[in-house]
Amino acid sequence: MRELEDMSRDGIPVTSSAELAGRTGFTSEQIRKDLAYFGAFGTRGVGYDTSALALQIRRILGLERGVKYALVGAGNLGTALARYAQARIHDVVVGAIFDSDPQKVGQVVAELVVQPVDDLAASCRRLGLKVGVIAVPAEAARSVLEALDAGGCQAVLNFAPVKLSRPPMHVQNLDLTLELESITYYTGARLVRPRSGVEA
Ligand code: NAI
C-alpha cells in the first residue's frame, strides 16, 4: 500500500506485479496470489491502477475509516509510541492510554489523559477500541491482554518480552530485545564452526 501510494504521488498511474515485487521484496507470484485472495484488481495486459489499488488495500486493512487503539503502559516506551504516533501516523492513532500507576493516571500524554487500567475493558467497549498495544512490564502483560480481550479487542501488538497468545485474538509479539540479540549473529559470532562429526 505504501509503495502504491508513493507511486501514485510520483505520477505513476499503472504498475505490474513484477514492478511491485521489485519495490517490496516479495515475489510477483506472491503479490498476484495475495491480491487474488481479495478480488480481481488488475487488468490483463495493462496492470494495476496504482491509486485505485492503494485505496482497495486501505479498505481491506480497514484503514480508510481510521483505527484507534488502546495503549496500555504510559512509561518510556508507551509515551514514546504515543508521541510518535500522534506526530507521524494518521490512520492508526491512539484512542486512549492506560496505566496502573496512580502518579501517571490523570497526566496528559500526546493530548490524552492517562486512564486507570482498571477501566481498560469498560473503556475499550465504550470507545469501540478493537486494537490494543501492550507496553507494560512482562509480568503485567498477561493480565492486560485478558482485560483487552474482555473489552472486545481483537488484535494486539505486544512489546513486553513475553510471548502472549489468546485465540481467537490476533496477538503479534514484538520482542525488540530478542531482535537485538539475534542480530549479533551478523557481527561474526557465526564464525563458530560445528565440531567435526556433528552435522550442521
Ligand atoms: P516503564 O517501566 O518505563 O513503563 C511501564 C509502564 O507500565 C509504567 O508506567 C507502569 O506504571 C505501567 N504498568 C505496570 N503494570 C501495569 C499494569 N498492570 N497495567 C497498566 N500499566 C502498568 O517501561 P518501558 O521502558 O516503557 O517498557 C515497557 C515494556 O516494553 C517492557 O515490557 C519492556 O521490556 C518493553 N520494551 C521497552 C523498550 C524501551 O525502549 N523502553 C523497548 C522494547 C520493549
What structural keywords apply?
binds 1,4-dihydronicotinamide adenine dinucleotide, alpha/beta, 200 residues, Rossmann fold, Arc Repressor Mutant, subunit A
Look up the CATH topology of the largest domain: Rossmann fold
Overall geometry comes to globular
How are the strands ordered across the major sheet? 7-4-3-8-9-10
- Give the SSE order as H and E letters: HEHHEHEHEEEEHEHEEH
What bound compounds does this protein have?
1,4-dihydronicotinamide adenine dinucleotide
State mean pLDDT (0 to 100 scale): 91
Let me know the number of strands: 10
Main beta sheet:
6 strands, parallel
Number of domains: 2
Q: List the uncertain runs.
A: none
Give the helix tally.
Answer: 8
CATH class of the largest domain: Alpha Beta
> Radius of gyration, rounded?
21 Å
Structural class: alpha/beta
Q: How would you characterize this protein structure?
A:
There is one protein chain. The two termini are 40 Å apart. The protein has two domains: 2-63, Arc Repressor Mutant, subunit A, CATH 1.10.10.10; 66-181, Rossmann fold. It has helices at 2-9, 17-24, 28-38, 50-60, 76-88, 120-127, 138-150, 176-183, and strands at residues 14-15, 48-49, 67-72, 92-99, 108-109, 112-113, 115-116, 131-134, 155-158, 170-173. Strands 7-4-3-8-9-10 form a six-stranded parallel β-sheet, sandwiched between helices. It has a two-stranded antiparallel ribbon with strand order 1-2. 40% of the residues lie in helices and 18% in strands. It is globular and about 60 Å long. With 200 residues, the chain is of the alpha/beta class. The longest helix has 13 residues, at 76-88. The protein has eight helices and ten strands. Helix 2 packs across helix 3. The model has no long low-confidence stretch (mean pLDDT 91). 1,4-dihydronicotinamide adenine dinucleotide is lined by residues 72-78, 98-101, 104, 117, 135-138, 140, 143-144, 159-161, 176.
